[in-house]
Amino acid sequence: MEDNGWPLIPREHYMEKIMASKDAPFIKVITGILRCGKTTLMQMFRRWLLESGVDASRILSINFDSEESWIPRDRTSLYQYVSENAVIGKGTYLFFDEIQNVEGWEAPIRTFYDKGCDIYITGSNSQMLSSEISTKLSGRDIEIHMAPLVFSEYAMFRKGSGRSKDQLFQDYILHGGLPAIAISEDTKASMLIPEMIAGVYNSVVIKDVMERHDIRNPASLRNLMRFVMRNIGDRTSSRKASNYMTSAGTKISHVTVDEYLDYLDEAYLAIRSRHIDSKTSEYMVTSDKFYAQDLGIRNHVAPFRPEDIDGLIENVVFNELVFRYGEVCICNVGDLEIDFLADPKGKPQYFQVCTNISDPDTLERELRPFRVLEDSYPRTIIVYDRYPMDSVEGVRIVSLLDWLLE
Fold it and tell me: Beta 349-354 vs 395-399: how paired, if at all?
């Protein structure tokens, strides 16, 4: 099986999702930032199918990023190639990587689906957003979104490195969770990690944002990205960002900033977290917060400073909550704010994030919003430094690393 020379390390969270989707009557669309592991996930799922007893003749895979001459490039040649090399019907599994490189791909894909094939595709954000894929497939699809490694996955990738969990966390905070970066950490390639991260970032910014949206002033976009990454966890209004950039010599309207923030969000560079009202459970029209989906990219854009640690820890928790629960937002309780409300429309849980709560005033600040809540959903304070008690006033207290590795 093609593995690009890298070991195939299981990512059980996503494998469970894709295995659960097997034979479900939808086309599975795997999305995520460049180099997050989409192609590898499909490789591992194909291997699992073979080990589960599916005959190799019922599995067909094409990577349309390949330059090989036999690769179909249009709808007619795609339909012909698949028809000649696979048994079209129920029990056949088709995998199409970077499907956007085939002109008119949606027609043959819909045909194969209608004939009973189980289909899995990936597409590039630069040419086709997941929402556009759904439109082309007329609602026949479900999305499996992948993100870079959360810390528990990162620690597994580096099992045997000899590094303590604290040392691994330091590496993770600095270099992020792209799988290729984690695999490179304990090899000679580690000296090239900054260049690897820069390559991914530049590719995403150029292809998924600048070229896709025909941005004529790339400096303004890069300056906005730097502003957002420097202010992780802070309320970010388009007017505030516009004023800052204008004062720094880059004149840009708040309307354009709004558009650029949407572009960065859809490219998985700066993830938007909205505010929800604790009483009405409705999203509020207010300044949102933004978090980096990968801290390695964040630190490439806005180099790490010791004073950034509070925001970076909050970012790690945000990404972990998204990984575990899906939807995560900031919760407004009157004039107070709780850092995160996870799964707000399902089984809500509240989370505060703090470096240290040994100071009574800090502990009081973190507890105050919880006291005002009118429900009894679970409440947790996650602290970077250990605290001698595991609960206060019914609020769970847990150290960051213990929580991340649960």
Answer: unpaired
